[in-house]
Design brief:
The chain is α+β, with helices and mostly antiparallel strands and 807 residues long. The protein contains 24 helices and 24 strands.
Length: 807
């Protein structure tokens, strides 16, 4: 029986080559997209599942409220995690991960090799007891026990030592905290699985610098910079422990919290959910939102559904070609179930062939897709059973969905009627086909609208006046103490270049995350009413170099110690106008330190110093005479001949920073990096929408060919009676254009709702306008018209004698 079904299916596919090619290519393209997206989503959800007892590992997060300024931090104050282990028996172990604050890169040196490496992290000696890594060299038990010891990730170890063993070797790490020698005690890789802790260097906490500061830190209110983790004992309840945290925090931090007027709540977040949870500040790595992954899954499903619709449409359209086959089979004893099995079998076969074609195609385009999504997905067919599960699922689901209607429709024909050439069912096949075409184009129009809106928003972001001038700005970062000591001399030489307008030094540049903040209050206030303000330490040229507008008061002057510039938002929050804020003293105090104050020199027009996802928050530029903390320089230039200018700057660089790599960035490019997720989403939707449209067009092309074939005699008669080619082409195309118009009416409110939801993630967004939906509709109509016009013109130009000679 199976052999007979198989032979019949193969013969039918070979006999109807156009039908087969359209379906197989459509299913292959849909499967390729669907498989890649599912692998990508699975990869994003796989983070931190490899750790031993991962279900018992939690991150301590912090919700802060300082006089109405609310923050949701992925971090906690340093003493919280170790004290939890001391106080609660259900906490089996703790560890902390401390970014080397103030250091974005370190200069690593080994013999004659030296290069910059992205920020390393300090970790407690218990780190590898909580988190599971595959050790290539060394042992997790003692890797971080000794001061100034570190563990390297495999790529960095290979970069430093090639194929040599790394364990036991000593490297020099030079950064803003000085130059220190570290002994390598281990090398690890991520073969066990990916983690949200992105670093290539794990330094033991007991290594001076910021790690040593953390070990001595006893702040329970402020200093929320420590990524803190606990592992609960088997059977312990995270919910139960979290309910005890308010009393725990009150026990140790009540006075400190009261002194600064802060409300603080601790939460426990499962480590397996960290990578796919967005909305936290101070993350160790870039997260991905569940909303983003849900959109991708929806796109994958839509593309596969569009491919299935092609199959269903073309199968029902060609039902008349197989009607007599069905009748004969029924006459010789085939039951309806046998016919359903046959037609579903053909569908599964086509789906299987589509997968077989999709796999090598996916392997070929995988590098391009990974570049599109900024991912590193690997098609490891023989390593992960999940790939086989996904493939089997795609074959079964696609085969059933695509073949269900043709199977049940064809098997319902009555034997006597179909043999006589007269067959009908209670459901109109043409009506079903039209409905499916409408549904197909509803999906396509929604996707096209998504492209239009996303690119409109990205263009809006790119061209919005941020309140500062991001153009023609070069950014230089200095990562070592020795380099920072030469910044003044380097700046002086740069100012001699005629192409340079301003040079400014600071501890942050605009578009970077601003980690420094503290509460400030005016005369008559106290820390309980303080307004939390972000602050950047700068020199007297920062506002000029960045094109920041001073709307009242004055800019910084040389040796303007004790003066600050505040933005409009901070002035309003403090109860001042831009004019009345000038000369006011702002106070702050963090016990046991004494009260300190600064004086407002000027008020800046609000500007978006961070991304447009959030509204402008209180900001204060602080004049700093001590430039030892400065590690960034912004150079405003007045020339577009960057090649010539950069050659001159590189010459000055080598004069002052011998042996230090020459690195620079453009400020406008740094600003755009804040929207990588949106850019990636735009690229994904753009690419996969094109594929979805191609698949839709294939189906429409096949239906147009079938329609022209079915109406060939009508067309012949019309031509004999004098109908023009243009008239016949319009007649054949009109039916399909009507369907696209109906799809547009249905798709518009759906697309509006979807894109309105997406835009809610921006504090500043482009308004949804009628032209966005009209453009999507026009593109859909144009695509449909171009697709069916070829078959329409071909049918209209055919010789009517050929179609009428059999009558």
């Amino acid at each position: 029986m199976f052999k007979s079904y198989f032979k019949t299916a193969v013969r039918f596919l070979l006999k109807n080559k156009t039908f087969s090619i359209i379906n197989i290519f459509g299913l292959a393209a849909g499967t390729l997209c669907c498989l890649y997206i599912l692998l990508y989503v699975q990869d994003q959800y796989s983070y931190d599942k490899q750790h031993k007892n991962a279900d018992n590992i939690y991150r301590i997060t912090t919700s802060l409220d300082l006089s109405g300024d609310k923050h949701n931090n992925a971090t906690a104050s340093p003493p919280i995690a170790p004290t939890l282990k001391k106080d609660f028996p259900e906490v089996e172990q703790f560890t902390r991960v401390i970014p080397n604050l103030g250091v974005s890169k370190s200069l690593l040196k080994y013999k004659d090799k030296s290069f910059y490496e992205d920020e390393a992290v300090y970790v407690d000696s218990t780190f590898f007891d909580v988190f599971s890594y595959h050790f290539i060299e060394g042992s997790p038990a003692d890797a971080l026990l000794q001061p100034y010891s570190l563990v390297l990730m495999k790529p960095l170890a290979e970069k430093l030592f090639g194929k040599e063993s790394a364990a036991g070797k000593v490297i020099t790490m030079d950064n803003a905290y000085g130059s220190h020698n570290f002994k390598i005690t281990g090398v690890v890789d991520e073969t066990l699985g990916k983690t949200h802790i992105k670093t290539h260097v794990f330094m033991t906490m007991n290594s001076g610098g910021f790690g040593g500061y953390t070990l001595k830190n006893n702040s329970w209110a402020g200093n929320n910079y420590a990524a803190s983790y606990i592992r609960l004992r088997t059977g312990a309840s995270a919910i139960g422990l979290e309910s005890k945290l308010p009393a725990f925090l009150k026990k140790y931090g009540q006075q400190q919290l009261k002194d600064i007027g802060m409300t603080k709540v601790l939460h426990l977040q499962p480590v397996k959910q960290i990578h796919t949870t967005s909305g936290y500040e101070v993350e160790l790595s870039k997260t991905v939102s569940v909303q983003f992954l849900s959109i991708l899954i929806i796109i994958a499903v839509l593309i596969q559904v569009i491919a299935c619709i092609n199959f269903m449409n073309l199968s029902t359209a060609r039902a008349s070609k197989r009607a007599k086959e069905v009748g004969v089979r029924k006459v010789i004893g085939a039951g309806r179930n046998d016919l359903i099995k046959q037609f579903l079998g053909e569908s599964f076969l086509l789906s299987f062939i589509g997968v077989l074609i999709a796999l090598p195609l996916l392997a070929a385009v995988l590098p391009l897709l990974n570049q599109l999504t900024n991912a590193d997905i690997q098609l490891t067919l023989f390593k992960h059973y999940l790939v086989w599960v996904i493939l089997a699922g795609l074959v079964l689901v696609t085969g059933f969905v695509a073949g269900s209607y043709p199977a049940f429709y064809l098997s319902a024909f009555r034997a006597i009627k179909v043999i006589k050439g007269n067959f009908t069912t209670h459901v109109s096949a043409a009506g079903i086909r039209r409905s499916l075409v409408v549904f197909q184009f509803v999906l396509s129009i929604v996707l096209i609208t998504g492209i239009v809106v996303i690119y409109s928003q990205l263009n809006f972001i790119k061209n919005k006046d941020l309140g500062f001038d991001q153009n023609q700005k070069l950014v230089f970062s200095f990562y070592t103490q020795s380099a920072q000591q030469q910044m003044d001399a380097f700046s002086s030489d740069l100012k001699q270049l005629p192409q340079v307008s301003y040079v400014s030094m600071s501890n942050n540049y605009l578009s970077q995350f601003v980690p420094q903040d503290h509460g400030v209050y005016p005369d008559g206030g106290n820390m309980t009413t303080a307004i939390d303000a972000k602050n950047i330490d700068t020199d007297e040229f920062f506002a000029k170099a960045n094109g920041i507008h001073i709307i009242s008061g004055r800019d910084f002057r040389l040796n303007d110690s004790g003066r600050v510039l505040i933005n409009e938002t901070l002035a309003k929050r403090l109860g001042f106008t831009a004019e009345t804020a000038i000369g006011k003293k702002l106070y702050t105090q963090y016990a046991p330190n004494p009260v300190t104050f600064v004086e407002v020199a000027g008020v800046m027009k609000d500007f978006n110093y961070n991304s447009l996802h959030g509204e402008v928050k209180p900001l204060m530029l602080v004049y700093d005479n001590d430039k030892s903390d400065f590690g960034n320089m912004v150079v405003a230039v007045n020339s577009n001949n960057y090649k010539n200018l950069l050659e001159k700057i590189e010459g000055i660089w080598k004069k002052h920073f011998s042996g230090v790599p020459f690195e620079y960035a453009f400020l406008n490019e740094e600003v755009q990096k804040q929207y990588e997720t949106e850019i990636t989403l735009g690229n994904i939707i753009n690419s996969f929408t094109i594929i979805a449209i191609i698949i839709s067009c294939l189906g429409l092309f096949g239906l147009a060919a079938f329609s022209a074939e079915q109406r060939s005699k009508e067309i012949g008669i019309r031509k004999v009676l004098g109908a023009s080619i243009t008239g016949i082409t319009g007649l054949l195309s009109l039916d399909f254009i009507k369907l696209v118009a109906i799809a547009f009416v249905i798709a518009t409110p759906v697309a509006w709702w979807v894109m309105n939801q997406w835009l809610q993630g921006f504090a500043y967004k482009v308004p949804l306008s009628w032209w966005m939906f009209a453009l999507a509709g026009m593109l859909a109509v144009l695509i449909a018209l171009l697709t069916v016009s070829f078959q329409s013109v071909k049918a209209a130009m055919a010789n009517p004698v050929k179609s009428l000679k059999t009558e």
